[in-house]
Each structure stands twice: as structure tokens, then as C-alpha cells.
Amino acid sequence: MRLWILASFALACACAQASAAQTDGPPPSAGPDFASRVAPVLRTYCVGCHNDQDREGELSLESFTALAKGGKHGPAIVAGDPRASRLIRVLTGAAKPAMPPRDEPRPSSSEIALLESWIKAGAHAPAAAAALELAVPRIPPRNTIRPILALAIDPAGAQAAIARDRAVLLLAIPQNADTLPQKPRKILGPFPGKVTAVHFTRDGKELVTASGVAGVGGSAAIWNVDTGSRVREFKCQRDLLHDAELSPDGKWLATCGYDPTIEIHDARTGALARKLEGHTGAIYDIAWSPDGRYLVSASADDTCKVWRTSDGERLDTLPQPLKAEYACAFSPDGRSIIAAGGDSNIRVWSFVSRARPEVNPMTLARFAHNGAIVRMAFSADGKRLVTLGEDRTIKLWRTSDYSEIKLWENQPDVPSAVAFAGSRARFLVSRLDGSTAWFNAAAPDQDTPQARPIPPARAAAAAASAAAEPAPTAEHEPNDTPAQAQKLAPLPARITGAIDAPGKPARDVDCYRFSARAHETWVFEVNAARQGSKLDSFLQITDVHGKNVPRVLLQATRDSYFTFRGKSDAGAGDFRVFNWQEMKLNEYLYSNGEVVKLWLYPRGPDSGFLVYPGDGLRWGWFDTTPLAHPLGEPCYIVEPHPPGAKLVPNGLPV
Fold first, then answer.
1. Would you state the pLDDT for residue 383?
2. Which DSSP category does 575 fall into?
3. pLDDT of 308-355, one tens digit each?
4. Rounded (10°) CA dihedral 322, 328, 331, 336
5. How many whole angstroms separate alpha carbon 421 and alpha carbon 156?
6. What's the CA gap between 518 and 150, in Å, rounded?
7. What is the pLDDT of residue 29?
8. Which residues of 394-430 are buried (b: 16+ CB within 10 A; e: fewer)?
9. Cα separation, 462 vs 311, whole angstroms
10. 535 CB contacts (<8 Å, ≥6 apart)?
11. Residue of 201, 241, 219, 197 lying closest to 375 (CA atoms)
């Protein structure tokens, strides 16, 4: 009993000493400074395992407060007595287990002596909170380019915030100017590290910034735009921040970063309200719903997640992306969630998980760029979306169906950020070479040839001809080449003839010449099987020179391939293709010249799509012929367009 009391008394004294060292502040001869000299040693050798999030042995050495608290073996330090301090004893091997572990780097004798000197001098706490700073040598950069990592434009479209390295420039936007002024109106800073995100508040009076130091901590701040002064600073996650955004009502600040958690702070007091945990990788982007009740997050773990902000409940995980997601947003009307990232796809989900956790159905997945999508932004009215790709392209989309409107190729460098100029139909893009450029979002929609009306007289004649079935025209030989083609009377027409008749070669071709005008619609068919013929018919429409007349342009919008096994050239069932979850019924699937139409989803893990007509022999669309397809053969979801249409390239074949 006496030994237990003595041990308890020693522990209480040690804790009291550490506490006194923490509250008294360092005297003039306090020994090495904790923040600048001691903490870097602990971060290098100890904090990887002993931190606030991962407390090996219930011990964290991430801060002085945690160090003074100690772990399951009691206090880590005894102020004034290095030999009695467990921290020194495990580093020197005097106590077991020796630290760091055998296969990890160990501090040098001089670094251990530094820790002993600090403890012997009283193990005093730092006089003030340590700044976010990485203890590494500063190497002056040789490159004069200052990349732009983030930009924002206020709701009135009057000024822009440009984030260059550790500073944010506030620039007035001249009316209808093609360039930004060289001289900033204000310069905000300093920041602990590179600024990764900037956002104006809804009234345009304040600016939110995100920054931090990799491996050390994150920092968010709210700035007064008029004075350039910092209104409030938030010490956030344990690592660099990637984004910080105020709720629409301005009451809450949400932050995310390399640390896979989301923090929600009271924007007025800075107090941490709650943490949202569930991602297993860095979180690159977050966005509030228009009503401020929900958050969506995009992560390196290949998912997006939907959160209710009032209690932090996760309402859904959107798992369909195949690589890291870099950007996410709610549509301006709050009905949809949009995300994009490393797999070059735009995905849209219908937002339904409002009252309780449930699945938000994906309504669209579209291949967008020939590289990762790094940023996106909606226009103020929600009718346009801009996406930026690592392939140095910028795309403008119509949000009614998320079809491409315009492509800007071959940018001088990778686009890094985008912002619309208030309610105006133009947007600003920054690039990694430090340049900026304006683009017009009011570009006309995609030009497609429109069917021109048939002249009235010709239309009346066609209608009269169609009313009564035309008399048959007998085939006349020779008609085996376009030059020998038999001329027909004005359409419509009906031809009777024979293939492989006596005296003809084994493979016969009959050619017929007719007249038609551009944009007229005609139907051509062969009546063979219906009257008992064994003819394997093949119908081809060419011009007078024998070149095929384009019937349709098929633009691929989703890439895939055959999985599990190949496909024969007959059946309509068991089309097993990669990433089938992002395909829709009645979409066209193209592979090696064959086009089929999806009829029924797979009915379990051991099945595939059924294509039209659902059973029996499958149909080939656009006059294509069913073919056999080997395992792994590429296939594509395609959209049909009229011949001559100007298609916006998306990195997939046409």
C-alpha cells in the first residue's frame, strides 16, 4: 500500500511540474525553444505514431499540451530531470520498449542531447501558439513563374481574388476588359503556406481562404475585402487544407484537406462544432447545398459523400467514380449533385437523400476530357457548366442534358481555376503558368444541320405518289457497277429483280440510280425473306462515284470493354461489359462496326445486358450486322448525330 501511495504521489508531482511548466511560460534562461527546436525533433521521429489521431500507447507528442499529459505509462517528461523522463529513457534504450522501433530512423546523439537540455532547463511551454511552419531548410526558388492555384469573382462581378503562392491579390475588374489590371487593389497575407482556395461571401464584403503546411496543419481565414484585414483565423485539420467554404447564411465554415476529415466551425467564434468522418483519403473539394443544410465532398478514395450538417450524419456514399474525385457541387437549384475527377468523367446524381440516408440515383455519366478534370463551375443561372482538364482543354456544357457546347483546346498550360463574372455570360480561367484569360459562355449552341422543308410542289407530288403503291420496275442488266446503274423514275419506286440468276456470277450486284434532295428522308428496304427467298440481302446507298452516303455520325460518350467472356454473333442476351452501372436502357452500344440497343439491365452478378429485341437473334442498328466479339474487345456507348454535324471532341472516337 505504501508503494502504491508513493507512486501516485510521484505521478502527481510530475504532472504538477509539467502543468506548471506549461502555465508559467519560459523564463529568460528556459533552454532550447520548444516550438522552433524541440517540436521539429518530435515531429521527425515520434509524431508519425504518437499523434492526436493515432495515440500509440495512449500517448501523443503532437503538441506541448499532449506531451505534458503523457500516456498509459504516465508522464512522458519530468521537468528538470532528463534521466527520470520516460521520453529520454525510451530514446536511449534505458526503458523498454526502445523507441523509435528498430526499423525506423533514430534521433542522433545531438538531438537527444537537445531534448535533455530542454527538460533539464524546466521543460517550459512555448510562450505562444506555434505557427504552422515546416522545419526544413528554405530553398529559394529559381523559377520566376508564380502559378495561380485558385481564383474567385465577387457576386457583382466587380473584383477578382487571385491566389498566387502565399498571397491573395484583389483586382478590380474593368467593364468588358479582356485582361485583368497588373496592379492589385489589395494584397492579403501573409499565409502559412500556399493558398489553395478562395471564395467570396454572398454579399461580396468578405473573402474566405484556405491554406496550410503539408504535414503540419491547415489554416482558414475570413478577410475584410475593403480593408484587407484578417477578420478571423481558424486552425483546422492536421494537414494542408484544400478547401474552406462558408455556408450560404454565413454562420458556419466547412474545411477539408489532406487529413480525411471535414471540420465545421462556428464562423463567428471559430469554435469547432463537429467533425465529419468517413472518407479514407484526402478530401479535395466540398460544397454546400443552396439551403445550407447539406454538404457534398469529393475525395481521393474514389467516392463522393453527402452529409447532413445539422448532426453530421452521412446520408450517402456515391461510389461510382473509378479514380479520385477532384471537384463536386450542388446544382444551383439544389436538385442534383455533380462531380468530376481523375477518370475524366462528369457524373450527375439526383439528390433525394434529404430526410434520411438513402441511395441518390445516378442520372448521367459522361466522358468529358482526355485527362483528369481538375475544376468546374456553374453559371449564375445554372444553365451552363465549365470544366477544366489536365489535357489543357476547357469545355462549356449545356446543363439541361450535359451536352458539349464549346471546346477551347491547346491552352498554354494546365487550367487551374475558373469563376463566372457574376450574372454575366463570361468566365475567367487561370493557368499554372500564372496567366489568366476571359472566355464567353454565351457561345451559340452546337451547330447541327436542320431538316429543310420539302418545297410545297414536290411535297404534294410525293404525297400523291405515296398514296398509291408505285408500279414495279423490272431489273435490266447490265447494272453491276455505278456507271451501269439502272435509272429509276422519281421516287417512290418499286423494283423487281433477281440475284444469282442463271448465267450470272456467284456474287451479283444490282445498282440503281435515283434523284433526291439534301435533307429529304426516304426509307429503303429489301423484301426477300418475307416472301420465302433464301437471299442474304445487303443494301448500300452510295453517291454517283460509289462512295457510301453517310447515314449517321456516332460519337462515343462512354468507353468500356467485354468482360468475363466474349460474345457470339447471334444471341441478344448476356452482354457483359465493364462499368455497366453507368449505362442506361435504350442507349446504343458500339463495338467493331456493330451497333446494338440496350433492352434490359443485368439481373444479377452472373448475367449481362439483354439487347433488342430481348430474345432470339439480336438486331443490328443503323444497318449494322451482328458480329462476334472476343473477351476484352473495346466497346462504347454512342450518341447518333446527323451527318455533317459539328461535334465537340471529348477524347473518345467518332
1. 94
2. B
3. 999 999 999 998 899 999 999 999 999 999 999 999 999 999 999 999
4. 40
5. 8
6. 50
7. 58
8. bbbbebeebebbbebeebeebbbbbbbbbebbbbbbb
9. 69
10. 499, 526, 528, 529
11. 197
Q: Cβ distance 330 to 289 under 8 Å?
A: yes
Beta-strand pair 403-408/415-420: unpaired
Q: pTM (2 decimals)?
A: 0.75
Dig out the grid coordinates for 359 from the structure: 441511395
- Count of residues making up the chain: 654
User: Helix, strand, coil proportions of the chain in percent (round to 5)?
Assistant: 15, 30, 55
478 three-state secondary structure: coil
- Cα-based distances in Å from 347 to 61, 114, 321, 396: 42, 54, 8, 15
Residues with Cβ within 8 Å of 163's Cβ and at least 6 positions away in sequence, in order, are 148, 149, 150, 151, 194, 195, 196, 197, 198, 209, 417
Q: Hunting for cell 463522393 — which residue is that?
A: 304
β partners of residue 420: 427
Residue partners of 251: CB distance under 8 A and separation at least 6: 266, 267, 268, 292
* Angstrom distances, CA of residue 23 to CA of 121, 189, 496, 528: 15, 31, 105, 99
State the virtual CA torsion across 112, 117, 122, 125 in degrees, nearest 10. -60
* DSSP-derived pairing of the beta strands 486-487 and 512-513: parallel
Tally of CB atoms within 10 A around 84? 15
Report the chain's terminal Cα–Cα distance, integer Å: 86
Place of cell 469563376: 419
Per-position DSSP letters for 46-91, written without gaps between them:
TTTTBSSSSBGGG---SSHHHHHH-BTTB-S--TT-GGG-HHHHHH
Nearest Cα to Cα of residue 515 among 554, 564, 461 = 461
For the chain, state the CA radius of gyration. Answer: 35
User: In angstroms, rounded to a whole number, what is the distance separating the alpha carbons of residues 169 and 183?
Assistant: 9
For 199, residues 6+ apart whose C-beta sits below 8 A from its C-beta are 152, 207, 208, 244, 245, 246
Closest CA to 580 of 605, 560, 600: 560
State the residue for C-alpha cell 447515314: 551
Distance, CA of 490 to CA of 367 (rounded, Å): 45
Q: To 5 degrees, how large is the angle CA 239–CA 343–CA 413? A: 75
Q: For residue 210, with 0-12 CB atoms within 10 Å meaning exposed, 13-18 middle and 19 or more buried, which class applies? A: buried
> Phi and psi for 611 in degrees, rounded to 5?
-115, 165
Give the whole-angstrom CA distance, residue 285 versus residue 304: 10
Residues of the chain with pLDDT under 70: 1-30, 128-136, 443-468, 500-506
DSSP 394-421: EEEEETTTTEEEEEE---SS-EEEEEE-
The phi-psi region of residue 250 (left if phi > 0; otherwise alpha if psi is between -120 and 50; otherwise beta) is left
Residue pair 275/310 in contact (Cβ under 8 Å)? The answer is no
Question: Which among 38, 172, 180, 186 is positioned nearest to 118, based on CA atoms?
Answer: 38
Q: d(Cα 328, Cα 306) in Å, to the nearest integer? A: 11
Residue with cell 529568460: 28
Calculate the CA dihedral of residues 150, 153, 159, 162 and round it to 10 degrees: 0
Per DSSP, 444 falls in state P
Cell of residue 388, nine digits: 477544366
Residue type, 217: G
Tens digit of each residue's pLDDT (9 = 90 or more) over 191-205: 989 999 999 999 999
**Which residue, among 347, 162, 316, 194, has the nearest Cα to 258 in the 3D structure?**
194
pLDDT at 418: 97
